[in-house]
Design brief:
Elements: E1 2-6, H1 10-21, E2 25-29, H2 33-40, H3 51-60, E3 64-67, H4 70-75, E4 79-82, H5 97-113, E5 121-124, H6 132-145, E6 154-157, H7 167-172, E7 176-181, H8 184-193, E8 200-204, H9 206-236, H10 241-250, H11 272-285, H12 291-294, H13 296-314, E9 318-322, H14 337-347, E10 351-355, H15 366-375, H16 379-382, H17 387-393, E11 396-399, H18 404-409, E12 417-420, H19 427-430, E13 436-438
Parallel strand pairs: 1-2, 1-4, 2-3, 4-5, 5-6, 7-8, 9-10, 9-11, 11-12, 12-13
Antiparallel strand pairs: 6-7
Length: 441
């Protein structure tokens, strides 16, 4: 394919060289003449493993050249990769100035080219927040081209997952390829661009592709911060943190796995809250600052408060809650977020009915009974014996259980507002209904 790559920084330079190495005909575009001259001389404008040899080879064969002329690049290509920087503004917001400028320049060049060059596909590889492409860049393209994105112009978002220092290796052996496609034809172009590379390909809506890069980087930062904080606590307590982490990493069932990584409701139970509090307390006693660990429980509480706010937003007063124990298949109510949710709603004066098939006040014993009598002493009058009893009562239903009897009874369309805390199996279909509110989106 004939490809133009806008921006010859780390991402653009590596993308241009690697695509040329795959057999594509690539034109690199940059405003910096020094970078342009270096590339045309077969030299890398960035320091990166293997990039020097690769650029020398693809420039020698004629597969890669560079220019500062946007019109020349557009005329000589059928697909454009936008790899310009999106730095932070002083207040932390995303700077989209370079993205807007390049998009405008591409649009002007495409308008000059007209229909003679066929349909051109613009692929945004720069990191940008969800909504940037559809709400900011697509309107710019359409304004200057005078056509419709997805019809007259192809548009896609293709985030990169390249690590500086190993980016050439990462390009040819990616963990995944993500293609946010405005329309199937745009996605087909990007898919063809990377044909032959290993790894799973995900073709998703444009905003999803934009968000994935942030999910990755936020989690990577969280992992590093978690390991460093735990290491600091272990050191203060005289424990070898690397031995601890070796065992931690060996657990592929719960620790290094998809477990616990699906958005849903708050966590609770007799272990996680208690152990987090103990660990943070031990760190403070040892004068070790652990801001990540110290904010896990407050973050959990904030997520619970979001459920309360969803109910408040409805303006309705009769509420049904399905689920009470801290997780399915148990009657353990200790530090259950659903108990806390019931307590907050009851305290705010909501007319509440609760059903949990595993919870019967007459069967609660010991610490479990003592806990509920302390936190929700009016539980007996709030518990309903059947799903139907709650549905007949409620104007708003909070779903905190996957009990098949509850899921089967939930109405569609007319009926109570559904506040989904777990992402129901039919959540995609329900999302279009006016009476559905999903916390797990």
């Amino acid at each position: 394919m004939r490809v133009s790559v806008f921006g010859l920084g780390y991402v653009g330079c590596v993308s241009a060289a690697c695509l040329a190495g795959m057999g594509h005909e690539v034109i690199g575009v940059d405003v910096n003449q020094v970078k342009i001259d270096l590339v045309n001389d077969g030299k890398a404008p960035v320091v990166e493993e293997r990039i020097g040899e690769l650029i020398a080879e693809v420039v020698r064969t004629g597969a890669l050249r560079a220019t500062g002329d946007v019109r020349e690049a557009i005329m000589g290509s059928e697909v454009s990769l936008v790899c310009v920087g999106t730095p932070s503004e002083p207040n932390g917001s995303l700077c989209t100035t370079y993205l807007e400028r390049v998009t405008e320049q591409i649009g002007i060049a495409l308008a000059e080219q007209g229909e003679q060059g066929g349909r051109h596909t613009v692929v945004f590889r720069s990191t940008m927040l969800p909504g940037t492409c559809l709400n900011l860049l697509v309107p710019i393209l359409e304004k200057y081209v005078g056509g419709t994105a997805g019809v007259d112009i192809g548009v896609a978002v293709n985030p990169e997952f390249l690590r500086e220092g190993t980016s050439v290796r990462d390009f040819f052996d990616p963990p995944k390829t993500v293609i946010g496609e405005l329309d199937p034809a745009s996605g087909d172009v990007v898919t063809a661009l990377y044909d032959g590379l290993p790894g799973e390909v995900f073709r998703v809506p444009v905003p999803t592709a934009e968000a994935i890069k942030y999910a990755d980087n936020a989690f990577h930062g969280l992992k590093i911060g978690f390991a460093n904080e735990l290491g600091a606590v272990c050191q203060a307590l005289g424990v070898d943190s690397h031995q601890v982490m070796d065992v931690f990493l060996a657990d592929r069932k719960l620790n290094i796995s998809p477990a616990y990584l699906r958005p849903g409701f708050a966590f609770g139970g007799s272990c996680l809250p208690k152990d987090l509090r103990s660990l943070v307390h031990a760190a403070r006693r040892a004068d070790v600052s652990v801001p990540i660990l110290a904010h896990v429980l407050p973050s959990n509480s904030d997520h619970l408060q979001r459920a309360v706010e969803l109910v408040e937003r409805t303006g309705k007063r009769r509420v049904g809650l399905f689920g009470l124990s801290f997780k399915p298949g148990t009657d353990d109510l200790r530090e259950s977020p659903l108990v806390e949710l019931a307590e907050r709603l009851y305290g705010k004066g909501y007319d509440l009915k609760i059903h949990d098939a595993n919870v019967s006040l007459s069967r609660l014993l010991g610490a479990n009974r003592e806990y509920i009598e302390t936190r929700l002493p009016h539980l007996a009058q709030l518990l309903a014996e059947s799903v139907d009893e709650v549905l007949e009562h409620a104007e708003v239903c909070l779903i905190g259980t996957r009990d098949p009897a509850v899921l089967a009874a939930l109405p569609h369309g007319d009926g109570p507002v559904i506040v989904d805390l777990i992402r129901l199996p039919d959540a995609e279909a329900r999302r279009a209904e006016p009476g559905y509110m999903g916390l797990a989106w």
